């Protein structure tokens, strides 16, 4: 009897998860219309006052339904950052990635494959294969991740090898041992910093300096390249989870647009 009830609860949770994902998908689809309207009104992508209002409303709603406002705030800031990144991509927000997009302008499936290669640091070999370091990765696995046919993977690598600029990028990609996914299991903290201007000098120094004042050590720092990533961020893995005063101190830094804590 207990096992049956457990399965019922799990099915209900699965339905709710599907609804959450569907709603987020609808929210993201608004990016196209937003870009067009903002262009017409000559508005920038980021609106700090609007972001504060959205976060404030979400915190109040969270409190009214018995949820942790800090958790909901982090979730909403992540959603806002992702949507802003989608808007930037539509207007051409990262100069090198724009060149990649142009190279695959007529081949959306190939662009999806290129995204996967870049995301995971998978390099294109001279023979047209794909490898993680020196370990060969099958085209079928990459196709499944990209949501395309296997032939699109082979076509993508050939497009890359024929384009000298793309070749210089994708032949030299490397993966890293990223601690974000295992931070919770190791008792570590994860902070994502969305900068106001990722190309500005001194952001890492400013952020790490603020954290060190609280006696917190940084185990890993991964900074996205603003020339490649549309919504670049600085991800810090700390020796312990951070809360309260540390987060507020980071949000007050002049270079910081938003702080997301896991």
How many distinct folded domains? 3
CATH fold assignment of the largest domain:
Chorismate Mutase Domain, subunit A
Radius of gyration: 21 Å
- What summary fits the major beta sheet? 4 strands, antiparallel
Q: Give helix % range.
A: 55-70%
What is the molecular shape? globular
Portion of residues in beta strands equals 5-15%
Count every helix, treating DSSP H or I runs of 4 or more residues as helices: 10
Low-confidence stretches: none
Task: Walk me through what this model shows.
The protein has 262 residues and is α+β, with helices and mostly antiparallel strands. It has three domains: 2-91, Up-down Bundle (Chorismate Mutase Domain, subunit A), CATH 1.20.59; 95-170, no CATH class; 180-261, Alpha-Beta Plaits (2-Layer Sandwich), CATH 3.30.70. It has helices at 2-41, 48-64, 69-91, 95-103, 108-120, 139-146, 150-162, 164-170, 203-212, 244-251, and strands at 123-124, 130-132, 135-137, 189-195, 218-223, 234-238, 256-261. The protein has a four-stranded antiparallel beta sheet with strand order 5-6-4-7. A three-stranded antiparallel beta sheet has the order 1-2-3. A hairpin with a 2-residue loop joins strand 2 and strand 3. Helix 6 crosses helix 7. The radius of gyration is 21 Å and the shape is globular. The model has no long low-confidence stretch (mean pLDDT 87).
């Amino acid at each position: 009897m207990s096992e049956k009830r457990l399965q019922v609860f799990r099915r209900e949770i699965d339905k709710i998860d599907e609804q959450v994902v569907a709603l987020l998908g609808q929210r993201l689809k608004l990016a196209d219309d937003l870009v067009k309207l903002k262009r017409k009104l000559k508005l920038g992508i980021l609106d700090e006052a609007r972001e504060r209002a959205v976060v404030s409303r979400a915190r109040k709603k969270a409190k009214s339904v018995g949820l942790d406002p800090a958790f909901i705030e982090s979730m909403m800031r992540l959603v806002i950052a992702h949507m802003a990144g989608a808007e930037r991509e539509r207007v051409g927000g990262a100069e090198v990635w724009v060149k990649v997009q142009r190279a695959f302008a007529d081949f959306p499936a190939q662009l999806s494959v290129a995204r996967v290669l870049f995301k995971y640091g998978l390099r294109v070999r001279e023979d047209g294969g794909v490898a993680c370091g020196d370990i060969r990765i099958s085209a079928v696995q990459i196709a499944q991740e990209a949501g395309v046919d296997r032939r699109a993977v082979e076509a993508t690598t050939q497009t890359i090898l024929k384009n000298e600029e793309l070749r210089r990028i994708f032949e030299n990609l490397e993966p890293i041992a990223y601690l974000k996914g295992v931070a919770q299991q190791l008792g570590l903290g994860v902070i994502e910093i969305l900068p106001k201007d990722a190309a500005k000098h001194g952001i890492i120094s400013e952020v790490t300096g603020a954290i060190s004042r609280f006696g917190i050590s940084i185990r890993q720092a991964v900074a996205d390249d603003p020339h490649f990533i549309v919504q670049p961020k600085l991800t810090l893995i700390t020796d312990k989870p951070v809360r309260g005063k540390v987060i507020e101190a980071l949000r007050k830094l002049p270079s910081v647009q938003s702080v997301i804590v896991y």
